[in-house]
Amino acid sequence: MSKKLLMTVKTLSASLLLASAAMIINPAVAADKPSTKGDVGRGAKAWVENCVRCHNVRDPKELRDDQWITTTYHMRMRAGLTGQQTRDIIAFLQMSN
Amino acid sequence: MKFKLTTLACLVGMSLAGNALAATDTSAEVKKLRQEVNALNAKAKEWEEWKAPKTLVHLAGFASVGFTQPEKGTGSFSTGSFSPIFHYQFAEDVMMEAELEFEGSATGASVAGIDYMTIDYFMNDYAALVVGKFLSPIGQFRQNIHPSWINKMAAAPVGFGHDQAAPNADVGMMVRGGFTTDSGSHNYALYVANGPTLEPNTAGTEIEMIETPGLNQDVEGAKVVGGRYGLFFAEQQLDIGFSAAVGGTSVRLSTTNYESARSYQVVGFDMTWRVAGFDVRAEYVSQKVGDSSSSSITDGGTWTAMYAQIAYKFNPSNWEAVLRYGQYDTPDAASDVNQVAAGLNYVFASNVVAKFNYELNTNPNAGQTAENRMLAQLAYGF
């Protein structure tokens, strides 16, 4: 096998491995996503604990409801929040702005 | 929001109703009242739509301006950077996130670039697939602290700037997310990407730096695979992270000509701890490039950097004091720096900060020097 081909195979297997690792983390991937609604009480706790980890805490009044959705999803990526924590925090921020 | 709207509607309704009763021509008044209530309902519906439409667009970002006074040279004003961030989100499934970077320069031309641009697919509550150009998930400074309103110092720690010891960005794919267990919150990022290239010095005798701007081509055909695993203990307000990546890289001979692959490794450790009003951060990162007997530059090398920073905000005043120690160690004796930096910040708002810093820079190698600097910066995140 040529070196180039070997590299391509290696990259593809690494990518596949990555994707399957993600699938294993939640066996229910193929099924519908669990969409438990955000909970304001849990959201308040998660907000206090998580939103000071990297920067000064941002006032809920700074942004509109829709802007808090994109921002919190962006922060989910940065902080490694779960989907449920994200929905809870959005519920809290939308209630407090 | 809903509660506020209902209250508003009731109040308006009640006052209008009062007027209507007192009026003589009731049917005309009732008609007018109906029209007003309908208009109000339409407005309320419009406001509700802001809450959760399917497609969302949001413009965020940050900018900074400053003044730098080197110990010996002349001081200069500078526009630090202007970095708009775009978020486009479709329902709870897909997000496009992109950060552009515009930087002024000493010669007049401004430098523009894509800091990151990814399409993220939220696969489930615990994992998202990220494809595109992303900030390197190695360590914490590059991905989480670099925006000027977040960094408590005016400049990056030594070794954590562009093309130094800490990888900056990469192009590839990544799976990242988090989950919680009894022991704490876990977060992870696993990636495969094109990886860095090596810039030789002008004489072509040494590797001058590892470039990690996130290139759209894998010049030597050896991908880099790695990631970061982080643990967050909410009660203790303690974050720790371990990062590593391995793969290949190569020396750039010209913009189109690259040498064959040699080995590349990076390891990192980072932590943040908020305790008794103090904000403590530390990070270590080391990139290692292997030797290559077939290369015109046989020797590889190791680029290592670390910092430890402590900050304290004197609540309820707006003042914050910061102290940072950093070390940057490279194969080139002239580039090594040890730094002690002290800063005083005025925090106008959580996202608007004025910083006043003094950096004591020394080169630990015999016969080498480094210059001290004073920096002032105004940073705004939006």
3D structure, described in words:
- The complex is a heterodimer of chains A (97) and B (382).
- With 97 residues, chain A is mostly helical.
- Helix content of chain A is 65%, strand content 0%.
- In chain A, helix 3 (65-79) packs antiparallel against helix 4.
- Residues 27-32 of chain A have low confidence and may be disordered.
- Chain A starts with a helix and ends with a helix.
- Chain A folds into two domains: 1-30; 37-97.
- The longest helix of chain A has 23 residues, at 3-25.
- Chain A has helices at 3-25, 40-50, 65-79, 83-96.
- Chain A contains four helices and no strands.
- Chain B has 382 residues and is mainly beta.
- Chain B has a domain at 135-381: Porin.
- In chain B, 14% of the residues lie in helices and 53% in strands.
- In chain B, strands 1-2-3-4-5-6-7-10-11-12-13-14-15-16-17-18 form a 16-stranded antiparallel β-barrel.
- In chain B, a hairpin with a 2-residue loop joins strand 12 (262-275) and strand 13.
- In chain B, helix 1 runs antiparallel to helix 2 (26-51).
- Chain B starts with a helix and ends with a strand.
Quick structural overview:
With 97 residues, chain A is mostly helical. Chain A has helices at 3-25, 40-50, 65-79, 83-96.
Which stretches of chain B are poorly predicted, pLDDT < 50 over at least 5 residues? none
User: What's the overall average pLDDT of chain A, rounded?
Assistant: 82
How many DSSP helices of chain B? 3
Order of helices and strands of chain B: HHEEEEEHEEEEEEEEEEEEE
What percentage of residues of chain B falls in helices of 4 or more residues? 10-25%
